[in-house]
Amino acid sequence: MLVVVYDEGYLRHETPANHPESPNRVLSALSGVEGLAEVIKPTVNVDLIEIAGLVHEYHYVEYVTSLCATGGRLDQDTYVSKGTCDALSSSVNALATAVNLLKSGTSHVYLPLRPPGHHVGFRGRALLAPTQGFCILNNAAIISSLLLRGGASRVAILDIDAHHGNGTQEIFYNTSRVFYISTHQDPRTIYPGTGYINEIGVGEGEGFNMNIPLPPMTGDDLFKVALKPIENALREYKPNYVVVSLGFDSHYLDPLTNLNLSLSSYIEVFLMVKRLIDEGITEGSVYIMEGGYNTDVIKQGSRALAMISNDTGAVKIEDHTKTSAEVVKYFNKMIEQHKALFPQYW
Ligand SMILES: [Zn+2]
After folding, report:
1. Which entry of 13, 17, 86, 280 is 20 to 30 Å from 223 by CA?
2. pLDDT beyond 80 at 313
3. Count of alpha carbons within 13 Å of 286, Cβ hemisphere only?
4. d(CA 39, CA 207)
5. CB atoms inside a 10 Å sphere around CB 196
6. How far does the centroid of ligand 1 lie from the alpha carbon of residue 156, in Å?
């Protein structure tokens, strides 16, 4: 059964009225898994500064935690409230709890936490992005580091948020122990403006950073094409664990983005990850909530994740979306470079 690690602390990070990243997102995820998951509170208490320091520079973490005393903001998009440090503490406790669950054999863990994290690099803004895009600590990066510290040899991060995870890419760009794989809207058309195909990693990390940009209005049919090299890469890499940066903003109803995916694409990802676990390619998966600003999509998507993790049979929530011939042409032209760089996965 899917195990959800929830803590009220996630709700205490406050943003201004009408800010898309609101506590309701967490409540929607919870209502989606109701009756379908084991919901637990974090079972361990770790030190926020020490755990955040696994991937972030000390001065950045100190700065953020000092802002919690008064409230303030890190940039025009990213706010810190007096309760933000409660949310961050709850999040790192949940990450450490998830590591224990995975190591003791739980296959599917879901952390519907906030604030999100994948845009934060070593010291906040990553790779020249204009802002931190609502993110404060990089939860996916922290849990990957915890898993490596706990004995894993390889971790894959699959990031299906509509925005590129520039922070996660920055943090693991020169290592082969974390394979960062991201699908996202074409960086020429959306924040943070990174995530091009030729960003493949450096040094030991060369070949272990894989970006698959998607043109605006990409539908489920085209996403399925993009998922094939991803599954092949994961099968060859054989990560001990798969960390999914689960952003629900690739959905067509999302107010901030321009992709045209339905929940069918999310279901394809959940099924793929489950297949890899069932076949013994990887031991377990942890889904970490990133973006996604339509609360009904978060609810229905979380419900689909629970149903698939629990093996409750066929899940169909929405009709598939189709991509126009013009957009397919745009994708095919762009993706030639990917096929040249990663021919073994196509
Ligand atoms: Zn996003």
Report:
1. 280
2. no
3. 32
4. 37
5. 15
6. 19
Distance 19 CA to ligand 1 centre (A): 14
Whole-model pTM: value is 0.97
| Residue among 143, 141, 129, 182 nearest 160 (CA) | 182
Which two structure tokens, joined as six digits, stand for 239?
Answer: 């990560």
- Which of the following is catalytic: 13, 108, 118, 119? 119
For the segment 60-116, what is each residue's pLDDT rounded down to a tens digit? 999 999 999 999 999 999 999 999 999 999 999 999 999 999 999 999 999 999 999
Contact (CB, 8 A) for 239 and 282: yes
- Of 121, 145, 148, 150, which is closest to residue 133 (Cα–Cα)? 121
Domains in the chain, please, with CATH?
A: 2-345 (3.40.800.20)
- Confidence bin at 317 (pLDDT 50/70/90): confident
pLDDT tens-digit profile of 184-226?
A: 999 999 999 999 999 999 999 999 999 999 999 999 999 999 9
Residue 183's DSSP bridge partners are: 212
Annotation marks residue 320 as catalytic = no
